[in-house]
Amino acid sequence: MLILLLLVAIVPFLIPISPLENLRTPQAIAQAESQFVTIPFAGTDGIDIHYLADEAKTEDEPTFVLLHGSLFNSFTWNELFDFFDERGRVIAYDQIPYGLSEKLVAGDWTGANPYSGDAAIEQLITLLDTFGIEKAILVGNSYGSVLALQTALTYPERVEALILADSAVYVQESMPAGIINVPQVQRLGPLFGRMIGNNESFVRQTYLDPSAIDDERMRLTLIHTEAMGWDEAMWAYLQEWGTSPIDLTEKLSAIAQPALVITGDGDTVVPVADSERLANTLPNAEYVVLSSCGHVPQEECPEKFEDALTIWLTQHSQ
Predict the structure, then answer these.
(1) Pairing between β-strand 47-53 and β-strand 35-39 as defined by DSSP bridges
(2) Per-residue pLDDT averaged across 2-29, rounded?
(3) How many structural domains compose the chain?
(4) Is residue 15 part of a domain?
């Protein structure tokens, strides 16, 4: 037993952590449609945010802000971007540390942790302020819908309505801070970041038909792994996310905005029952189940997603 304990204590410090090679700046990786903006955040010199957007339109048209889930990024909305563009202004952005937004690591901030749940809300609101958006329809997938719900609770006056796809609001994943903070775990942190942040198996699990994920879709999903410092940034994020889980379950009934709750009937990441529970809890929600779809229906089943949105948006605008 003593030998085993010694191995656990010593071996992590003997494992080499080789630096990743061929990494580039987000600007060098950017796609043709990519745009960047630096938003203020207390305790930093600003956070560089990667986003996709159309031009501002008339004031009476709605603004849609598209929020991706964990491991994903703004490119997850590629198939639906034109759909929203035809109906108003649309912005999709990469929540840090995903996609091509800035990869903050310990030492890059002196105040509140920029990876906390509260910080994510403030970054969203700051982004709205930066673009002069007073009110928006928040469209979230998975943990993106959790951010949408958090924002509706914290800044109800800024949220016109909610579209929540395969919401992870009832998913609770955490790790005790006492484990994360031990020197051995800290030493291996970047390796944990690489394991979680470059998880093709998880991405395939989000589709009912994993064979529908081609090489380009996988590359866009994991594009953050091409950016400098992504593994350390992922570890910094995981430490905060893992020790401070978000629990909105007792607050959901206070959200009065119109909401559309959508789920794929083949979601193996978030149980379909969770989406039904959410729809029944929100005071002003409608519920739609998309047949033969998985956890990211905006990618796997865009036509079915659009059909559900068209009906709901037509009713909402009346």
Answers:
(1) antiparallel
(2) 64
(3) 1
(4) no
SS3 (DSSP) at 70: coil
**Distances from the Cα of 202 to the Cα of 79, 196, 199, 222, angstroms:** 20, 9, 6, 11
**HSE (side-chain half, CA atoms, 13 Å) at 107:** 3
- In Å, what is the CA distance from 298 to each residue of 68, 178, 245, 286? 10, 38, 26, 18
Please state, in angstroms and rounded to a whole number, the distance separating the CA atoms of residues 64 and 138.
Answer: 6
Task: Tell me the residue range of the domain where 178 lies.
Answer: 35-317
Burial of 53 (0-12, 13-18, 19+ CB in 10 A): buried
User: Which pLDDT band, with edges at 50, 70 and 90, does 154 fall under?
Assistant: very high
Q: Quick one: average pLDDT of 59-66? A: 89
Q: What is the mean pLDDT of the chain?
A: 90
Residue 228 is part of a domain; what is its CATH number?
3.40.50.1820
Q: Among 87-101, 160-174, 223-237, 282-296, name the one with the lowest average pLDDT.
A: 160-174
